[in-house]
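Cross-check.
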Amino acid sequence: MHKQVLWTIGFLAVLCLVTGFASASEQDGNAEISIDNGINRFVLDGKEFMAVRAIRENFNAHDFDVVTFYVRDSDTWKLVPLFEDYSDKQGAERDLLTVSGGADCVLHDFRLLRATATHPLELVAADRELGKSYADSNIVHFTYFELATNDANIPGRPSLYFKMQKSTVARAQYCDVNEALDKELHLGADSHFSR
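Predicted model, tokenized:
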């Protein structure tokens, strides 16, 4: 009996490694869930998620990445959008994120952060105002989202979505939002941007 339990545990561990599935708490100690080009699969709160990241070619220095999030519900994949609830834009929906910039700097990027015992799953989007050019330093806005459920069945909201919690402005101006994410929020400078 003891050998069978050990074999089952070993089999499940190998299955997690081969399929790339593990709960957020079982993944490595890095706080970020890396979303690289292609299909990214992971498990959060016992639910299977998928993020798809692809390049949108522009045939100049301004190609950009498009990222969408999905959750499996039985045998159906459902979109997990972002809702920005600003006072002048109640419930503005974003079905995708873009990671973009120019040859000099990235103007839009994000980090998807694992939940911890003291902090919920969070998505932080960083957006820099264009200014005069892609190479200028300018104001960077951080928008924080948490994964939310539509338990009240509110019309217009899906069962699972990223809900905006707050928006802040970086203390300094930056050319590349990844520098702002690293220096001000300590989330690292690695963008995963496919340029």
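The chain has two helices and eleven strands. The mean pLDDT is 83. Passed to J.P. for a second look.
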